């Protein structure tokens, strides 16, 4: 199961929002509008509790499903953890790994990220690996160094075949939930660096096919200017993915940008 960046990839990370009835209501509305945005890959990433119900609602539509986290273990005495086979069982195709909130509040490191990516791939889930710098690191001009080290450590041991099944999301921490988006130029600089680094390690073909998402205060109003940048293949959306209308609007803007640049 490989992935392609021929269409913009728009994923909504709901974080810890929505009860099951709220989730179902949102996804029903999304499903209804989804025929308008078949030019984009559309993925919802709800809390674990809503996964199974949502997988039933999206059946027969183009909307796809992902989870926000998983264990690197397959099963066992690991209270509170959810494994890759459980996510597959609930209907997931994607899983977010190493979101900055997990690194910041739940002790995730590049090493755990690496183990989780390997476990996801082993179970045929597509990992969306998150990385990005803090405000302090940006101000000290350490952005490239930070992102480079996260790529090297997080993707250690991956070959070309594995890389063809991994999505990368650049999410500058200072832009998450703050309303402050990276400028298109700031985002593109890091995206171009990520693609170059992938080319160095895995060759040009793998790098040019890679899906590299931007995340951090993406809204309908700034999607076009971000997605028109050469190396930005989509968005990982938080707050603006919670309502069907704004999420669909983001997908439409992404399709408009993609049409123009390709
Ligand atoms: P916001 O879009 O709310 O800034 O969140 C971004 C994010 O963290 C997506 O994973």
Mean pLDDT: 97
| CATH homologous superfamily heading | Aldolase class I
Please mark out the parts with pLDDT under 50 across 5 or more consecutive residues, or reply none: none
How many H/I helical runs?
Answer: 12
Bound molecules: 1,3-dihydroxyacetonephosphate
String of helices and strands: EHEHEHEHHEHHHEHHEHEH
Q: Name the assembly state.
A: single chain
| Tally of individual domains | 1
SS content category: alpha/beta
CATH architecture group name: Alpha-Beta Barrel
* Separation, N- and C-terminal Cα atoms: 24 Å
Q: How would you characterize the largest beta sheet?
A: 8 strands, parallel, barrel
Number of strands: 8
Percent of residues in β-strands: 5-15%
